[in-house]
Every structure is written in structure tokens, then in C-alpha cells.
């Protein structure tokens, strides 16, 4: 069974989500100090960091499982017939 389309979708979604989260961190760092000290902004930074960790762990687990699951080697036939 070929799961290439699922892998491509996961890679594309991971790239876009990581880019968005990194942009969120950059915007947070460029914000004025009085904005950074609000509790909602501090909580959103924590959510962004947890989201990045979740995406990285999900990708690592999924792609390692995918590599192990799809690593099937076909053994050659043990026939002694000449073809």
C-alpha cells in the first residue's frame, strides 16, 4: 500500500505550521515591552512553544514509524531453475 500522498500532506502541513509558529515567536519578540507583560501574551507564547514541541515530536514519531513500517525487503526466490 502506497502512503506517499499522506506523507506529502504531513510534510507540507508541518512546514506551514512551523513557519507560522516561528513567525509568531518573531512577532512576540518584536512587540513592545508593555504588550509582552500581559498575561494573555505570556500564555500565548507558552502555547506556541508547546505547539512547536508537539509538531516536532509528532513528525519524529510518525516518520520513524513510517520508515520502520515500510521497510520491507523482498527475498529472492530460492529456485534453482535456469530462466
Q: Outline the low-pLDDT stretches.
A: none
For the residues shown, what is the average pLDDT? Answer: 85
Strand content: under 5%
Shape: rod-shaped
Order of helices and strands: HHH
Q: Helical stretch count?
A: 3
N→C terminal distance: 29 Å
**Helix/sheet category:** mainly alpha
Number of distinct beta strands? 0
Quick one: biggest sheet? none
Provide the domain count.
1
Rg (C-alpha, Å): 22 Å
Helix content: over 70%
Verbal overview:
- The chain has 83 residues and is an all-alpha fold.
- The chain has one domain.
- The protein contains 3 helices and no strands.
- Helix 1 (4-30) packs antiparallel against helix 3.
- The longest helix is centred in the middle third of the chain and has 31 residues, at 39-69.
- It starts with a helix and ends in a 14-residue tail after the last helix.
